[in-house]
Amino acid sequence: MVARSITITPEVVLASTGHGKVRPDWLEEIADYVQRAAADGELVTLTSKRRMLTPAQVADALGVSRSTISRKIAAGELRAVKVGNRNRIPFEEYERFWRDTMGDVVELTRDEIAADLFGDR
Prior knowledge:
This protein is mainly α.
């Protein structure tokens, strides 16, 4: 027996709600997987795990340096969890930080954008 796995992201599940299909594609994929495993006499275990990002992944996503993210963590602006001696940022914390950061950017650039779009009034 060869161990197999599939991964379904929250975005895929949430994007499929309300499309009127009897079964969304991600659920079809799970059903097919379970049926194949059952036909092979295999045991299927469904698990979920919290999505965690490294400081480097968050830095790449935000377009900043890893050391900037490390400073944000040290300052308490970005919550991280220690896994061994490494920091990991829960995905929902990354999303919160992104929303807060983008809100600040919008606030700081609102007048400049309005002037560019509509000229000085």
